[in-house]
Design goal:
The protein is α/β, with parallel strands linked by helices and 493 residues long. Helix content is 33%, strand content 18%. It has 18 helices and 20 strands. The strands form six sheets. It has an eight-stranded parallel barrel with strand order 4-5-11-12-13-14-15-16, surrounded by seven helices. It has a three-stranded antiparallel beta sheet with strand order 6-10-9. The protein has a three-stranded antiparallel beta sheet with strand order 17-18-19. Strand 15, helix 13 and strand 16 form a beta-alpha-beta unit. Helix 2 packs parallel to helix 8 and helix 13 packs across helix 16. The longest helix has 19 residues. The protein starts with 19 loop residues before the first strand and ends in a 19-residue tail after the last helix. Bound molecules: xanthosine-5'-monophosphate. The site of xanthosine-5'-monophosphate has 25 residues, from strand 16 and helix 14. Belongs to the IMPDH/GMPR family.
């Protein structure tokens, strides 16, 4: 009989994506019919269970807008000032707004001439403008069709001669359907929104309504605005407050190790003061989850799985991601706290395995960093196009102000102990096609397991353990790939 050399070496094994596969099961679910709707936090539901990472080379407002329009959620990074963050949240929130708010409406002054108004509309890129007096009262509406030369309007006439003065207006509680019907019925393109005293408060446009209709799966708040998350430090209550006031839907308490007394105290304090949901991370064990379930609206999992992470090699600590997710989910699922698997996802198969392990949604960085919507320029190296992608614990990112994620004081340049690298990732084109591949692959996994919803899939899915021979068999093998597939690149091994 063999004694272990030391009890210290009687250790459990932890698994990651490549160690497991989903066991195929009898199915009556066609992949196209699999419903990916899920909960990312207590009060936020998304149409596809996918989040873009809070990293300065992944998610700013452009990414967050695109993610929400296509059914997921973007989480704005926090390597920016509070003012910049508030502005970024505002951009997401106003992107698909039904009612353009007063401040942003191009209006004409009744004193202006037809020519002046025409020039102003051309400059601002709008096709019409409410004519409003200094009190804010709506006197009429002018559109470029009222000004076209064949109507023989004299360009020096005051705008009041050319405008339509019987204005169709709407009240502030108008919904998209009613606004559409109103414009359709009167064959008009825009409707000023007024209060009880006929004072202008905003504008609804047909263009805006049609744009909203394009995004059937969009994730919106109660007011119809796109949803977004934002990363905050547990030690920056003022940033959390500002994000909450600016309308962020979820605050992500953004740390590399949330199973830490100070982090939990800070997070708990923030959660007790803000309206927004509060998701706390990252953790990777059952015990950590147990400390969070009584106050967190969601728990984010990942200690070192990320593509640009060096946490595990630098610190010697970490937890392979499938085990980390399964452990956290064991506790969190019992308390109905959603779980987000963050990092290490290279393929759609990894994403759906994370859900099988117990996650409700997944967060990705490298997968999206090469898209048009990610911040940063496309660069060409050796004839191939790339975009920059860097860890938030890399020297470059920490220098731009994020060092407290890794719990370090502001160091001198050579004192940084980074836990991430700065890299380049292949340029990929539009986010929409990446999301399409990711979601389609996940639906396919649900089809193989025979589950039509995420919750059914979490129940029904089972793993098998894969040997290294099995792992080699899973990938394209013994061939030379001649055409790139949109969802598989052996590079990302
Ligand atoms: P992927 O694999 O999707 O991972 O690129 C994105 C996630 O990685 C985490 N992250 C880091 N982890 N050092 C780390 O150890 C870093 O510098 C770093 N930057 C980001 C983060 O959780 C992100 O969502």
């Amino acid at each position: 009989e063999h004694e272990p050399y030391s009890s210290k070496l009687e250790v459990p094994e932890a698994l990651t994506f490549d160690d497991v596969l989903l066991r195929p099961k009898e199915s009556r679910v066609e992949p196209d019919d699999a419903d990916l709707t899920t909960q990312v936090s207590t009060n936020v539901e998304v149409s596809v269970p996918i989040l873009s990472a809070a990293m300065d080379t992944v998610t700013e407002s452009d990414m967050a807008v695109a993610m929400a329009r296509h059914g997921g959620l973007g989480v704005l990074h926090r390597n920016m000032t509070i003012d910049e963050m508030v502005e970024e949240i505002g951009r997401v929130k106003s992107a698909d707004e039904l009612i353009i708010p007063f401040d942003s409406v191009v209006t004409a002054d009744p004193e202006m001439s037809v020519r002046e108004v025409d020039d102003q509309m051309a400059r601002e890129g709008v096709g019409g403008a409410p004519v409003v007096n200094t009190n804010g009262e709506v006197l009429g509406i002018i559109s470029s069709t009222d000004i076209r030369p064949h109507l023989e309007v004299n360009e020096d006439d005051p705008v009041t001669e050319a405008m339509t003065d019987e204005v169709i207006t709407a009240s502030e509680d108008i919904d998209p359907r009613a606004a559409f019907d109103l414009m359709y019925e009167h064959k008009i393109e825009r409707v000023p929104v007024v209060d009880d005293e006929n004072l202008l408060v905003g504008l609804v446009t047909m263009q805006g309504i049609l744009q909203r209709r394009e995004y059937e799966e969009a994730v919106r708040d109660e007011d119809g605005r796109l949803r977004c998350g934002v990363a905050v430090s547990p030690f920056e209550a003022d940033r959390a407050e500002a994000a909450d006031e600016a309308g962020a839907d979820i605050l992500f308490i953004d740390t590399a190790h949330a199973h830490n007394k100070n982090v939990i105290e800070g997070a708990r304090e923030i959660a007790s003061t803000v309206q927004a949901d509060v998701v706390v991370g990252n953790v990777g064990t059952r015990e950590a989850a147990a400390e969070l379930v009584d106050f967190a609206d969601g728990i984010k999992v990942g200690i070192g799985p990320g593509s640009i992470c060096t946490t595990r090699v630098v610190s010697g600590a970490g937890m392979p991601q499938i085990t980390a997710v399964a452990q956290v989910a064991d506790v969190a699922n019992e308390h109905d706290v959603p779980v987000i698997a963050d990092g290490g996802i290279r393929y759609s198969g990894d994403a759906i395995k994370a859900i099988a392990a117990g996650a409700d949604a997944v967060m990705l960085g490298s997968y999206f960093a090469g898209t048009d919507e990610a911040p940063g320029r496309v660069v060409t190296m050796n004839g191939k196009k790339y975009k920059q992608y860097r860890g938030m614990g890399s020297v470059g990112a920490m220098k731009s102000g994020d060092s407290d994620r890794y719990l370090k004081e502001e160091p001198e340049d050579d004192e940084y102990v980074p836990e991430g690298v700065e890299a380049a990732t292949p340029y990929k084109g539009s986010l929409q096609s990446e999301l399409h591949q990711l979601a389609g692959g996940m639906q396919s996994g649900m089809g193989y397991v025979g589950a039509g919803t995420i919750s059914a899939f979490k129940e029904r899915s089972e793993f098998v353990r894969v040997s290294s021979a099995g792992q080699a068999e899973s990938h394209a093998h013994d061939v030379v790939i001649t055409d790139e597939a949109p969802n598989y690149s052996p590079d990302s091994d």
